[in-house]
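Before a computer can learn anything about folding, someone has to put a protein's shape into writing. The three-dimensional part falls to structure tokens, numbers that each stand for a local backbone shape. The protein below has been through that process, and both of its lines are reproduced in full.
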Amino acid sequence: IFGQPLETTLQVRGMTIEKRLNSGRLVKYGPLPMVVAICGLFLEQNALHVQGIFRVSGSVKRVREIQRIFATGPDFGHNIDWTGYTVHDAASLLRRYLNGLPEPIIPLDLYDDFRSPFIHPLTQPTKQFKKHELNEVIVKLHALIQQLPPANRQLLLYILDLLLVFSKHSKRNMMPAANLAAIFQPCILSHPSHHTSPEEYAMSQEAVIFMIEH
């Protein structure tokens, strides 16, 4: 499960999540890796107002224990009992799984394409979009998301949805989109050749913030 390609994890055990939006429309995400689906549901139900969620680490011992549960068949964590574990343990395990993927959720061959709308002079800290430009970027990113492998697309859309929900409660949890992007950008949109470049890191983070907010 952990450290394996996304497709391998889904072959072992996947799960589909149904969510009802404020509009009343029912949406489905999946199949998702079991650890992502179960941890995401637990966090959304119990951690929306927890300060520093995703930033504060859980207990190393407890995270190791629940990692073993999600890595053990036959149910691979589907019936986990969260008694004795905290939301920080679940958040740490979710991050550990995502950061352990051999490749970011957005594959490396689409890395430049997803960042292209956010390229700007180094003297400009962030790219300011006019209204018509904003819509153009959304349309372009939507088209790029459709090019992702199905498993990557479902995982990306679910993670962005989850982070958006938490960012909407940032007055309580102190985790606006920028803070969440700083944590999740490496597993969503990153490239090994840019790991030591602050400018490239900032641009990728800008792209992730945009995707969370829009």
Q: What stands out?
A: The first strand starts at residue 14 and ends at 20.
